[in-house]
Amino acid sequence: PGITPDDALVAVTTLSFDIHVLEIFGPLSVGAKVIVSSRETATDGWKLLALIQESKATIMQATPMTWRLLIEGGWSSAPLKALVGGEALPRDLLANMLERAGQVWNMYGPTETTVWSTCCQITDASAPILIGKPIANTQTYIADLHLNPLPTGVPGELLIGGRGVT
Questions:
Q1: How far is Cα 150 from Cα 145, in angstroms, rounded to an integer?
Q2: Chain CA centroid to CA 162, Å
Q3: Is the pTM here over 0.90, yes or no?
Q4: Number of H helices, E strands in the chain
Q5: What's the gap between Cα 89 and its chain centre?
Q6: pLDDT tens digits for 60-93?
Q7: Triad 97, 91, 40: Cα angle to 5°
Q8: Is pLDDT above 90 for 17?
Q9: What are the two backbone dihedrals, phi and then psi, of residue 39, each rounded to the nearest 5 degrees?
Q10: Rounded distance, CA 63 to CA 86, Å?
Q11: Contact 8/32 with Cβ under 8 angstroms?
């Protein structure tokens, strides 16, 4: 989804969750600012909203639960780039986020692929919620139970390869 030296990312993930890697090193790798939230703030929608506003944050990566907390805490709008990951993005939450955020991105990737494998900007709450295309140095394939490639549109198993696979 992009990050620049002018961005400020609020890091809400504990250090024991793999997503913290991108919250810390993603911004630092381009010279952006990292605002590290306390556990108390990250689990209280009102406090988290205050931190975002006071810090002038431009990006936050969080699970759907944290985005719901923020909405319940009074989040009405902000030019925030909202990255949703860690679990599936529910349609009702997506609709609420699209009303509030500057951008909403669905981030997908299991721990075994160094957090993110694919990403997709979502702009329409009624459209399918896609996981998007592979990020750099990542390949994705849809295969049957015998690991044979399937044609586009045929359901199967998602296989992920590339430099991020551990």
A1: 10
A2: 20
A3: yes
A4: 5, 9
A5: 10
A6: 999 999 999 999 999 998 889 999 998 999 999 9
A7: 50
A8: no
A9: -60, -40
A10: 5
A11: yes
Contact criterion met (CB below 8 Å) for 50 and 91: no
Say which residue the tokens 């998007």 belong to. 132
pLDDT in tens, 42-63: 999 999 999 999 999 999 999 9
Rounded to whole angstroms, the Cα distance separating 143 from 29 reads 35
Q: Residue 120 carries which side chain, given as an amino acid letter?
A: C
Both tokens of 121, joined, read 């900007």
Q: Return the amino acid letter for 31.
A: G
E strands present in 27-137: 33-36, 59-62, 81-84, 103-108, 118-122, 133-134
The token duo for 62 is: 């969080």
Cα 30 to Cα 5, 6, 10, 113, distances in angstroms: 6, 9, 15, 22
